[in-house]
């Protein structure tokens, strides 16, 4: 059945087929019995030989193959090796009904595996993370107007026919139709018997409606238009290139890159927009819909299994033109990818720190360079890596200098906490309090920012001095009063708040120490009893939808004071917000992390950027005990170039990224002796690393030395920028035989040192 004819889509938004057959040429076809190599998702790190099945298969075909007694998923990777006893070679069982993997995707997976030192089977698992790939295309029953009058008209029947009429030819599932009309499903079935409603089969996985590149573009300002022109020209080359799009929050970066998406659509190519936070997608989807007339496909952990399957298949068939997603969307089977946007490119959540450790920003550049696509890295505060690449001319640089409309950057000032004389269990200074009060009186919003979840980071026994820790990790447990529990932020373990001290068993002396977002919220309620205070922290919402609703309410004015963690620093638009108070600007300056200064700078600028996004001028106040610290001074002065330059100089001197290379090696085991022995042996036998001039540091206990009951030891490898690090590490690792309970993971370009 041709489903376009049933008008599943609003008129003018019928799906457009980008996809033109499987691109078959006779030469690239394996006929029945030909020896082919199949890469499977099983942890065997080589391509296995099979015989092409009856009817043959294409290179890149997704297949089911026998492996021992099992049936496993794989991809026809290329011709067979032929180094295995031919009489024992089995046949591919079945070619799956999905678009074959393109050669460029194979190449991408291969290069990404080489770069991150990941087995190919794990890469293939990343690329096939959709349920039901091996299921036959499934159908579902849909209902639409049948044209005949029922023998007897009732109210309920009338409502069903009205709904069908109103949506002019749209097809509904049984449940949708009954719900819309407010009738039981029996009423619909009754109408089907009468021929007044038609029941039909249609594929469950529907194409996404076609997007209209010219639906509703905005009129761009001078530098926005210039930036958009430049991106359009880049897209028109149909070649690889990366652009760093800089501009303060609110300068219109999103408007500009949506024009690049539009150009991509006009050229019949697909676009991928990566966002760092699921909570941001809702607002973004609405903007895409306003710009292109319909919503794009979504890909992140909040998407249902059925929808994931649909997105995966439709992306593969070219029936999803734009995908908005989290980092793993990079591994979707795009047919004609023309553009990847990495929004808030500096965001740390682009680095996956478990399983396959990759940085989505870097992999986006890799994927685009293989398939001739453009990359746009958008940020108000780019990573030092991208800043350096742009300075070096490897990336194009586009800068939006001012905020859109009347909005201007907020004034920034430090509050010197040494002069504020606060009691030890209070965190809102008198100066900040006065400013908040003034906002509440004017009906404007204030945001108090603290980058710590929970009520208090430490629970201390005032009788014996014991601090409650996690049983499985070397971390302190954080009190979450909202959940009425203690939670380990490392492993997620939680337990009820005890009545007595687990160490000295004295009752009633456990006390919270230090502030978390919940405690700050309590203080704000007490200081501003007449204000509406809301708290935004990622752990306080059962679902992305609840969070989205809350954010929407706040944007519409349902709060006077917003207390928030990192979550609010990212991209949300609160028009009434005119004051931001950063409770502890020094928090990120401590710690041994090489990127501490950079992170603090980015986060503070980002948070400050929340204030005064519309006509009202904003104010950002940073509470600090070290107002003379260079990072704090650069933030206050708004001296971005100065900050980056100074930071780059320091790292260049220290030969650290991006001016040198690093890799972290994490050994973990249930046996502490085991990991240290192995770590020492690895540090000693460093020949392959020394050959390329690399140095090994460690072993040292990882900053959190025990996680989930496993002891963790870390080695750090440093090398020159041009050194062939991965190859050397691979050769080095082959020397060691870790025991069964020991795991080795390699983290190329580590971001965090935990
Ligand atoms: P950024 O991505 O740099 O934070 P946005 O693209 O989100 O900035 O723009 C900030 C706000 O200003 C948004 O509400 C956006 O719709 C609006 N805006 C930006 N440029 C224009 C324009 N040229 N015309 C109309 N509205 C604009
Ligand atoms: Zn723990």
Q: What structural class do you assign from the helix and strand content?
A: alpha/beta
How far is it from the N-terminal to the C-terminal residue, by CA?
A: 55 Å
Q: Categorize the overall geometry.
A: globular
Number of strands: 29
Describe this structure as you would to a colleague.
The longest helix is centred in the N-terminal third of the chain and has 15 residues, at 222-236. The protein has 20 helices and 29 strands. By secondary structure, the protein is α/β, with parallel strands linked by helices. The radius of gyration is 29 Å and the shape is globular. The chain has a seven-stranded parallel β-sheet, sandwiched between helices. The protein has a six-stranded parallel β-sheet with strand order 15-25-24-16-23-22, sandwiched between helices. Strands 2-1-4-3-5 form a five-stranded antiparallel β-sheet, with helices on one face. The structure holds adenosine-5'-diphosphate (ADP) and zinc ion. Zinc ion is lined by residues 470, 472-473, 475, 488, 490-491, 493.
Question: In short, what is this structure?
Answer:
The chain has 754 residues and is an alpha/beta fold.
Task: Walk me through the topology.
Layout: E1 35-40, E2 48-51, E3 62-67, E4 70-79, E5 94-95, H1 103-116, H2 120-127, E6 139-145, H3 155-166, H4 174-181, H5 185-193, E7 197-203, H6 222-236, E8 241-247, H7 253-266, E9 270-274, H8 278-292, E10 297-299, H9 305-316, E11 322-325, E12 337-343, H10 360-371, E13 374-379, H11 384-391, E14 396-400, E15 411-416, H12 430-442, E16 445-449, E17 458-461, E18 478-480, E19 485-487, E20 494-496, E21 510-513, H13 517-527, E22 533-536, H14 544-555, E23 561-564, E24 577-582, H15 596-608, E25 619-624, H16 630-637, H17 640-654, E26 660-669, H18 672-684, H19 687-691, E27 695-707, E28 710-720, H20 725-733, E29 743-748
Parallel strand pairs: 8-13, 8-14, 9-11, 9-12, 10-11, 12-13, 15-25, 16-23, 16-24, 22-23, 24-25
Antiparallel strand pairs: 1-2, 1-4, 3-4, 3-5, 6-7, 17-21, 18-19, 19-20, 26-28, 26-29, 27-28
Helix pairs in contact: 1-2, 1-10, 3-4, 6-7, 8-14, 15-16
This protein binds adenosine-5'-diphosphate (ADP) and zinc ion (ZN).
Zinc ion binds near residues 472 and 493.
